[in-house]
């Protein structure tokens, strides 16, 4: 074992005082023993699905907590206006107090993990120290873990991460089903020294440190320094009926259906979609001048409610076995159920809080942020090259949001600078159940608002710069599946029908179709969007594919006011694109 690793483990063990320290090897027998242990201790419920478990979290620990997530750069300006900043020295002092003795009576597990296929030049290694077995078994699905990672590490650096549920166990005290410490929850990132500390939450993005903490917040800072991109994007392979394949990345804010799109089943005959990743992409220019992407993750941490054989049959097949479910409802025959899985709910369930549930109860049976964790390798649409060490070549990048008006179904950026502006301009209507927020527009540049580890203005600048380094520049598109009519009904059918939009994008990449120049970008000619067999009027298609200069004049005003928050850190390329958009929109609006 490398001396710096044992020193790190010893230091944290000295601080947190666990009863023992275990190095995770990643062996299947070892993980099976942990799953059995979780069931024996009544922490997990075994399901009728093979090798699958149900967990119920504490009701105070059900999602990522953005308000308790911090970026601790030396200077506040380097965290920027979109992050919660804390002074690194003060935060470390606070963390040392929180973590003092926090693992008493528990085991400290050491999880070496690789973000990206082990041995890929694009992969990076992290070491998570945690006192949660839930984290161990989830990390084993979400990343590549264990001895093979240490063997491949060589002399490279690793990102240290320390996680504690913040619930020491006194002698003879019984383990609570979901230990956590919500009042003291704190997720701290040190982008300059590349460290992660997470206290008090056992849930998802707060506790599985490889995901948002490393693969986005810390990796975005590493990527800035090394000249690549760490993005909140799915990666998909799209094959046309002639057998030609292209790869796209797509960025959408949380809860806009990224997992569904990554596993889309095209309704268009002869078209095929394959999944490389559903949430995060690391992108780098290759020696041939093309942009290559890897999925740094190995698993899927998907939202369960709304997932069904209609919305995402591939996901439903993926989770038939060897899956972990968190905060879904339990059926009388030891299976799982959640809102939207079937039209009719079962007559009786045990809800996510462990209480009897019948359809007449007003409460939801599963929590809206209930999750499934599963290895991506189990996905029937997994791409044959999803673990390619050099990544897959990217032809197009899509930016989307949930907009009931203004943004057309699809349009193309004029060039990389304009595409960067489109990414920076993304906003999305919120779906959160929080009172008063539903439908409210939230700016979410590049869908990275909660995930960028440094000043977002500098991040825009980094995007503008990397475009100059590439020789084969991918095309950039904006998409919006969520347009509504005056009655509040969606006017685009979405789901598998989105393959029609993918087809147009594919054909633009091939140079096979023309596009019309508009004030906002390049729009499809209506006849080029394949609507064969679709029950949609020409008028609706026109509405989906035209822009209203008056609405866009308002959009420009709103964007101008938003971008002010970045002050001096707003790069010239974004200002130039905004001015150019304003000029084009006013030209189009002129009578
Ligand atoms: O609520 C959580 O802890 C997880 S959030 C999440 C999980 C998987 C993929 N994306 C997200 C997200 O918020 O973007
Ligand atoms: Mn996400």
Short account of what is shown:
It contains 15 helices and 30 strands. Helix 2 (28-40) runs antiparallel to helix 4 (133-142).
Question: Any descriptors?
Answer:
30 strands, Phosphoenolpyruvate Carboxykinase, domain 3, 8-stranded mixed β-sheet, 591 residues, 3 domains, Phosphoenolpyruvate Carboxykinase, domain 1, 15 helices, 9-stranded mixed β-sheet, binds 3-[(carboxymethyl)sulfanyl]pyridine-2-carboxylic acid, 28% helix, binds manganese (II) ion, alpha+beta, Phosphoenolpyruvate Carboxykinase, domain 2
Overview of the molecule:
The chain has 591 residues and is of the alpha+beta class. The chain folds into three domains: 3-226, Phosphoenolpyruvate Carboxykinase, domain 1 (3-Layer(aba) Sandwich), CATH 3.40.449.10; 231-299 and 383-589, Phosphoenolpyruvate Carboxykinase, domain 3, CATH 3.90.228.20; 301-365, Beta Complex (Phosphoenolpyruvate Carboxykinase, domain 2). Helices cover 28% and strands 22% of the residues. The chain is built from 15 helices and 30 strands. Strands 11, 12, 13, 14, 15, 16, 24, 25 and 28 form a nine-stranded mixed sheet that branches. Strands 1, 4, 5, 6, 7, 8, 9 and 10 form an eight-stranded mixed sheet that branches. It has a five-stranded mixed sheet with strand order 2-3-18-23-17. Helix 10 (416-424) packs across helix 15 (572-589). The protein is globular and about 80 Å long. It starts with a helix and ends with a helix. The model has no long low-confidence stretch (mean pLDDT 96). Manganese (II) ion (MN) binds at residues 232, 254, 279.
